[in-house]
Amino acid sequence: MKKGIFKYPKILRISIVFCLVISLISLTFLIGCSRSENSVIVAGSTSVQPFAEVLAEEYMILHPGVNIDVQGGGSAAGILATQSGTCNIGMSSRNLAGTETKLWSVEIARDGLAIVVNPKNSISSLTIDQVRDIYSGKTGNWSLLGGKKTAIDVVTREDGSGTRSSFESLVMGKTEINARAMVQDSNGAVRQLVADDPAAIGFISLGLVDKTVKAVDLNGIIPTRENVTNGIYNLSRPFLFLSLHEPTGVAKDFIDFTLSDKGRQILDDQGLVTMAVNP
Amino acid sequence: MKKFGERIPQSLFFIIALSALSVLALITIFIFIEGVPLISKVGFFNFIFGMKWAPSLGQYGIFPMIVGTVAVTLGAIILGVPVALCCSIFLAEFAPKKISNLVRPAIQLLAGIPSVVYGFWGLIFIVPIIRNYLGGPGLSILAGSIILAIMILPTVISISEVSLLALPPLLKEGAFALGATHWQTIRTVLVPAARSGILASIILGIGRAVGETMAVIMVLGNAVALPHSILDPARTLTTNIGIEMGYASGEHQQALFATGIVLLVIIMILNGAAQYAVRRK
Questions:
Q1: Which of A111, A212, B79, B136 has the lowest CB atom count within 10 Å?
Q2: Domain residues of chain B, as ranges?
Q3: Chain A within 8 Å of B223 (Cβ-Cβ)?
Q4: What's the rounded Cα separation, in Å, for the pair B204 and B198?
């Protein structure tokens, strides 16, 4: 005579055990999720995210037992999360506007915005007005700018991206980006497309420019880190850390680490431009 | 004791089966709760027939994406369905057992390739070919249609093959007895008799094409404008959600859910049509 659970067919026994295991696992996760005081959540701009991750790794090596959780979501989401208190530190890759300025913020670095074309493109210098006309759809052919007679394949970022909103405020002003422009959802995808398509133009973070694409001079100024630092190349945007109030505890310590010589060195090594905060 | 032992698994399975259904209900309700306020705010007609999509400016018109979805799907059907039908007729009627035993699993394997792999392959292989030989930026409706045509093959082939194989052997024997050749039998008897199943397979193929996201994001260019030719980039309803969800918040996020409602309704209509096609004899 079989007793208890063994009186059921095998498949049912398996499912019962399976359910038990699942509930056990979820219970463990629930326990694991309870926050400790030594844990900081950093969330926001996907442009800042990779740099914050490197900083967090270094910081956690120096401070064992502290956990810094870096999440993406975008600048807008980062600002919202900071305002609502769901994250300790927010990340933004654009300047704050309106009521957002009430938040506590610090600029951890600047990032240049490079206008990139295919290396095969004969054009290596544009003015900001020319870039604006290309993106508004006014200039549709490279021959109008002295290049080959091919239609310009305009590549932009998706609505809501911090890189796009920086580009819009720095270059486009009140003019809108042409709806026929191709949309890619990351710096990497834009770079890949421009690298493959001889007639393409796009904009990406200066730190991500490599040999596969050519960053054009803007108004005669070469996009280099030096020119971003001294302010001559003015297509640049701030990388901000945000907090609802003046940060305290581990969050303050992490921000101090970011602004320290070591933190700045890490950001410099990653291709960003850091300012001397305490000269 | 026996009855009790019978009843427990019965009710247990019923509850588990119910949970699958309730997940569907939960998702549907959630999408509607999130999306409907935006549609009513913007206005149904402005939302469906609006030409301009600029969430940062508060403009939500998805008409170019509906056109994009229809164009890409239509292209996939035109390219994919004839191939799939020939393949299913071959498998059901002509292929020797050895060959069909080889081809059938191969086609099922086609269904198992992750869509991101299709997209990546399209981006590296098909897009440059279109750019170099046909012009335009390469990322285009044509590229999306080619990828989707391949992706719907397994669905259309296996369902129409099954509906051909399910025909009573009497039909074929009768046609042969009347002196029809094999090809005549297929053309005038078997395919017409299986047409409801074949139609259902095409409709399910359309559903697959409409719902595909990842592969299409990579090869379609995602521009929100009415395309002028099949070499122009376009955006579909699914890619609109896929490409913008990362940064969307507030109204923008609601607009993406509203896009999801439109998609859900389209898929419901398609699945309903497929059910209807199968049941009608």
A1: A212
A2: 39-279
A3: yes
A4: 10
Tokens of B8: 């427990």
In the numeric block, which tokens belong to residue A122? 């004969």
For B124-144, give the DSSP string. Answer: IIIHHHHHHHT-S-S-SHHHH
Cβ separation of A176 and B54 shorter than 8 Å? yes
Contacts of A181 in chain B (CB under 8 A): 223
A237 φ, ψ to 5°?
-135, 155
A92 reaches B (C-beta below 8 A): no
Q: Is B12 on the interface with A (CB under 8 A)?
A: yes
Interface predicted TM-score (ipTM) of this complex, two decimals:
0.81
pLDDT in tens, chain B (281 residues): 557 778 888 888 988 889 989 999 999 999 999 999 999 999 999 999 999 998 888 899 999 999 999 999 999 999 999 999 999 999 999 999 999 999 999 999 998 999 999 999 999 999 999 999 998 888 999 999 999 999 999 999 999 999 999 999 999 999 999 999 999 999 999 999 999 999 999 999 999 999 999 999 999 999 998 999 999 999 999 999 998 887 777 888 899 999 999 999 999 999 898 888 888 75
Q: Nearest by CB to A185, which of B12, B243, B250?
A: B243
- Residue A175 has phi, psi (to 5 degrees) of -70, 145
Q: Is B120 on the interface with A (CB under 8 A)?
A: no
Judge whether A18 is closer than 8 Å to chain B, CB to CB. Answer: no
Contacts of A47 (CB under 8 A, 6+ apart): A75, A93, A111, A162, A163, A187, A205, A239
Closest Cβ opposite residue B247 in set A8, A74, A193? A74
CB contacts under 8 A, A 123-162 vs B, are 151, 153, 158-162
B39-279: CATH topology: MetI-like fold (1.10.3720)
